[in-house]
Prior knowledge:
The protein is mainly α. It has helices at 4-21, 42-67, 75-102, 138-156, 166-189, 194-197, 207-225, 238-257, 265-291, 298-312, 321-339, 342-345, 353-371, 387-418, 425-430, 432-437.
Amino acid sequence: MIEKRWIISFTLIVAVALFALSWEFVAPAAEAVVDTSANVVSSDVAWMLTAACLVLLMTPGLSFFYGGMVGAKSVISTMLQSVICLGVISILWVVVGFSLAFGDDVGGMGIIGDPSTFFMFKNVGAMPHGVMAPTIPFILFAMFQLKFAIITPALITGSFAERVRFIAYLLFVCFFSLLIYAPLCHAVWHPDGILYNDFHLLDFAGGTVVHMSAGFAALAGAFVLGKRQKKEHVAANIPFVLLGTGLLWFGWFGFNAGSAVAANGTAAMAFATTNTASAIAMLTWIFFDRINGRKVSALGACIGAVVGLVAITPACAFVTIPQAIFIGFIAAIISNLMVNWKALKKVDDTLDVFACHGVGGMVGMICTAVFAVNGAGEKVGLIYGGTHDFMLAIAALAIVAVFAFVGSFILYKLTDMIIPLRVTEESEQIGLDISQHGESLTPEA
């Protein structure tokens, strides 16, 4: 007699195969802009292929960064929560995520894309897109943007580390990607997006779309899942954190400089400001720790470097090198204060995701609104008299913060109704590596 599990497996394989074949029969969207007359620029293609690979590397880097900071009983689980996004989001993005983010605007509202525009990557091929990717194959643009969509939910995982049920987390990742990330991506980066057009929001590489959304979702997750039974823990592997920081820093050049979508001077400037802001933030963090009576630590240096990378992300192509130094400096101090703020410590955000990514992203966005010279060379920052644009940017930040926090809070609750989010007390005591995956960092564990 054929076992039930084999019948289910075979049925799933057939269903996926039929689904994959169905894309040829999906009607193309009427407004999809494919520029058949545009010339593909080889240097841009080479750079964007490289940049996409660099951004992809950030997710394994994040897994080492987070995995080294948690307790020894949950290292594998924490790292897998990042790495699994490579699989989950890649499929979601191809099927419908890219359409929701970059498809034709629905209803002229600038909030979400038409899911049928690029369903199953229909109309996403080797030809450039006349607006979003004029010098590279549109499919390369789509794959580059995929890497951003992958790392954003992975960033959230540090907030509920050591207590989340893995299967429930997978469900939440799907909800978050489609209902929080995609609308923000559309609103900020699509040519018809409401925050791009109506609020004139400048976010070159993801201060709002990636870091604020992840930071506020992390804060909501910490509230919903509650505190760990044993809040204090010893970081399992500081060398993992150092390795992860190096991979993140390296990959961030693709993240920021790649957002120029061309091999040009804008990419070069973003490259330089990114490195400079991270460097000063790393040094500021460790010296600020020392001034406040704390030891200079490898963990602190790594966290400081990442905060600098986060803060410069939205501004990297809109500011000068001295301004990048200021952004990294001020972001490191503010995030350090938030990490050590007693009121915030009452919320068990395990790896301080909100204090680093949420706050760092907000500092970066505010500094962008203060200093920015936009892509057209117009001095729109507050210091140049751009008061109106500054106030619009602050309003946009408030909208993003509320949307990301409240929306994520609702999605956590919905997920919990379907599959309990939190593991049992016994599973938490054993550690997530064993209880969720039957694996351990060491054979003795």
